[in-house]
Structure formats: C-alpha cells, structure tokens
Amino acid sequence: MNIGKAAEASGVSAKMIRYYESIGLLAKAARRENGYRDYDERDVHDLRFIKRARNLGFSVEATGELLALWRDKGRASADVKDFAMRHVHELETKISELQAMTRTLRHLASHCHGDARPDCPILDDLATPGAGETDQDGQATGARARKPRAAGARIQFSAAK
Prior knowledge:
By secondary structure, this protein is mostly helical. The chain has six helices and four strands; from the N terminus they run H-H-E-E-H-H-H-H-E-E. The radius of gyration is 25 Å and the shape is elongated.
C-alpha cells in the first residue's frame, strides 16, 4: 500500500511516517518500480505501536527501545514493566510540576484586580529575579524575599542593543 493508505490505516500522518523512517524508528519501506514507498501490514502494525507509545508520552528514543523489546521474543516481561514504571515516575513528576505551576498561577491571578489599572502582580512576579524558583525539594526560594513593586509603578522596557 502507498504512504497515504498506510497513514490512513495506522492513524499516523504521511509526514510522520517519513520522519520515523528517516530516523530509523520505522524500517525503510520497500519501493515500487515507480519509486513510491510500498508498505505492508507489518509496517502498519509497527506504526500503530509507535503511535500508541507516543500517545502515552514515550519519547521517540524510548519508543525505539520499546519496539526493540516488543520484537525480542526472548525478553523478560520484567524488563518491560521496569521500563514502563520508570516512565510512570517521570509522568508523575511532570504532573506534580504542572500542578505546582497551576497553583502559582491561580495564586497570582487571585491577587490581580483584572481591571483598567496598570499594576499587575502577575507581571510583577514574572519580572522579579528569583521569583518562583524552587530548590530540589520543590520549596520556594527567593520569591518570598522580594519587595513588592509600588502600586502603579511601570515596568520599563529597554531597547535591544
């Protein structure tokens, strides 16, 4: 089947199929006499596998490792489980970081008047050196020590040099 049909059957765009081929994640497709790529059911199955792994947040590199594990019929399932659980830990860490960002933005937004006044605690926080930085334990550093900007004070933008 041509690349368009493989894309339709797998749910992976033709552009991504070409990309996966170019980086070696997907084997190079056979070529017809006219030079067009020719995909078979195994290629489509591999593309579906890749799509599912990517949808679960695995990087391209990790997806390649998963493909290798999948193709290795002698691999231990414990290896696959360990691999997946490491990814779960990475996702949980990312979720925690995103939740912290959400809490910070909600807090800043709750202190913003949201009216015609120019003073804005959100912008003040973004402009304050060290604001919002955390240590390895996720504890705020520097943000509490800053002095609030005077009400109505304007931020000055300097021209690029």
